[in-house]
Amino acid sequence: MQIERFRWMAPLCIIALLFFTSLLFAQSPSSGDDYQPLLFQEGKDVVWVPTEYKLAEKMLNLAQVTSKDYVIDLGSGDGRIVIEAAKRGANALGIEYNPDLVALSRRNALKEGVADKAQFIQGDIFESDFSKATVLTMFLLPELNFRLRPIILEMKPGVRVASNSFDMGDWFPDAKVSITEEEGCTEFFCEAFFWVVPAKIEGVWKMPKGRVVFRQRYQNFKGELKDGADKKPVKDGLLVGNMISFRIGDATYKGMVDGKRMQGSFTKKGKDYKWHAARIGGIPE
Ligand SMILES: C[S@@+](CC[C@H](N)C(=O)[O-])C[C@H]1O[C@@H](n2cnc3c(N)ncnc32)[C@H](O)[C@@H]1O
What we know:
By secondary structure, the protein is an alpha+beta fold. It folds into two domains: about 40-195, 3-Layer(aba) Sandwich (Rossmann fold), CATH 3.40.50.150; about 205-280, Lipocalin. Helices cover about 25% and strands about 35% of the residues. It has helices spanning about 1-25, 55-60, 80-85, 100-110, 140-155, and strands at about 70-75, 90-95, 120, 135-140, 160-165, 175-180, 190-195, 205, 210-215, 220-225, 230-240, 245-250, 250-260, 260-270, 270-280. It has an eight-stranded antiparallel β-barrel. A seven-stranded mixed sheet has the order 3-2-1-4-5-7-6, covered by helices on one side. A hairpin with a 2-residue loop joins strand 8 and strand 9. Helix 2 packs across helix 3. S-adenosylmethionine (SAM) binds near residues 43, 73, 76, 81 and 124.
């Protein structure tokens, strides 16, 4: 926990230092068509620092953004992530508090020829509905990620989430990416984290082989299969959105969760079999 804190504190101290330095040297950013934001200029809850283009590209690659997606960038700055997503054919939305940045993003989207796909609204991310997103991106702060975490975990299983530099505490990422110096890394903000919102499976499920209790912690879970007096542990439980996998004894289970039902196939001693389960209740007290 202490190490976690220190890992977060380093970029925070740098942000604070650069922010106060920028206050000393910066002039007010201009408004209007020639508006150019200043690095570390104040924002509602976090200053403006843009995601390096190469990192934005890698974040969208991890999320496997296609034309079927609806990408929302929370605190969209100059619009670069939204514009990159729109170039991939996705519908994309930036929610940004600063109206000058919103206007700049719209101009940038026009210049890049994606104004039809890249939309921007002025608003507070904590008062906005982003529940329709299939992909969420952000470059905020640890405490803001914490505030967003319960909202994100209530989104549809399978929603992909990419965050520049800041993680989600004990909701460990499914993957990470980084950029090198040659790719534009200038020491800080060179890493991003990636998650897939997991299906909710905590509870008691009935399987042909008995009753299984799943105890879930984000995308990981463990449990126990009970068949009369016989008890077998459930190991290596993993959820990637609605995709589920786990082991019971020497059988490896794979399948899909669909609300209160799940089904798939399991492999035992080189042979494949079908399995299914139905949720019958919560964890007994
Ligand atoms: C670190 S910048 C990231 C910009 C962009 N997402 C990117 O990755 O290039 C954070 C942005 O969030 C905006 N912001 C801060 N608090 C906000 C809030 N409560 N609602 C909406 N935008 C906010 C800031 O104005 C800033 O543009």
